[in-house]
Amino acid sequence: MDPEASAALARLRELLRIPTVSYADESLIDWSSFDAFHAALERLYPEVHRVLEREVIGGHSLLYRWRGADAADPLVLMAHMDVVPVVPSEWDHEPFAADLVGEGEEQTIHARGAVDDKGALVAILEAVEALVADGATPAHDVYLSFGHNEETAGGGAQAIVAVLEERGIRPSLVLDEGGAVVDGVVPGVTVKTAMIGVAERGVMTVHLTAREQGGHASTPPADPATARLARAVLRLHRRPFPTRLVAPVRAMFETVAPYTRGPLQAVFRSIRYTGPALVKVFPKLGPELNALVRTTTVVTEMAGATGANVLATSARATVNVRLLPGDTVASAHRRIRRIVADRDVDVDVAWASEASPLSAWDGPAWGRLVAAGRATLGADVIATPYIQLGASDSRWFCAISDNVYRFTPFHLSRSEREALHSHNERIRVQEWLRGIAFYRALITG
């Protein structure tokens, strides 16, 4: 590894070691870690902080402006500095040690945030630092938007959008985390695909609550609150939302059809006609394909009585709902209530955000992304639109830009993707270094 790459890797590892963990309950957050992260950025990226204008917004989010030759039609590069909590005992390597494992092409950094999302944040800064040091001036303004609470409320990004909107800023292109370079996701496809999110699913938190008078567990009623709640949960699990093919997913299959083996090639080429039958099969082929073709629901939390011998006066389940574009918060709420079909179980929306608008998968903004990928990630990597399965801070930018995309320029294996928000999060060093080149090409393209 050359000295420049080694120095970049050392900076990434230092920033990964700062435990910027966010919690929904902000009283649990160690804000000194975020302060330390800010200070480390200033020290590690002196050229960025010499030339770019920096603002702290919403408490701990950062907005940088790199003035270009023209202030109109700016580029916004997004990432977030916060990470999700860890259970250290589940990890093979200490989650904030940023250990290097292996050698050569397979050398890997193990750390919380390596992919989600400090890997992208640091790659962006590496690209900008090098360009500024080279004396470059972008053709148009470039903004760097780094949120501090993407993993919880996203309030930092919302505050940044409010500031930009007040100033009349209309970005020509916004890029946040999202899809990656993958293989083996779509059955039969023989090439690596750059999955560029042109929209993202909406998010809902729904509470199912059953109540009763309570009392001693030695004399339970015939139909206790916990049984009614369990019945409601099972009904919801057994009656998933219907499958359907939305336009970006149809376009994805049309794009990869020429690179597909066997009879699936004809199926994908004719997806407008074969789609209704095909999407009924996808849920059986894995959770990622299932999430591309339906609104999903899953119970993530359950709570009942305060003691082992106490009847629950209130039994509650939390349902995480992810809305496919075309479904709305209101329509999903109505459907869940119909499925639960129990007047004694309340179905309440605790929090919700609609699915984002669609960004185009043609035109100048899309072409700019594809060109940067082709130049740096491999000419054999095929760029395709898709629906971002998780939520990101980018959804707030749809209020000020028509071209909002979600793509992380790293080749990630299935096991690496599965480690996000789980234990053993990691990224291969060579893939991270390619990401720096991608951001540099995007800025200068």
How many structural domains does the protein architecture include? 2
CA distance, first residue to last residue: 27 Å
Task: Write the CATH homologous superfamily of the largest domain.
Answer: Zn peptidases
CATH architecture term of the largest domain: 3-Layer(aba) Sandwich
Radius of gyration from CA coordinates: 23 Å
Q: Could you say which overall geometry the principal axes of the C-alpha atoms support? A: globular
Q: Return the CATH class of the largest domain.
A: Alpha Beta
Uncertain regions spanning at least 5 consecutive residues? none
Number of strands: 17
Q: Please report the number of helical segments.
A: 14
Q: Mean of residue pLDDT?
A: 95
And the CATH topology of the largest domain?
Answer: Aminopeptidase
Quote the beta fraction.
Answer: 25-35%
Structural class: alpha+beta
Q: What are the key terms here?
A:
Carboxypeptidase PM20D1; 14 helices; alpha+beta; Alpha-Beta Plaits; Peptidase_M20_dimer; metal-binding; Aminopeptidase; 445 residues; eight-stranded mixed sheet
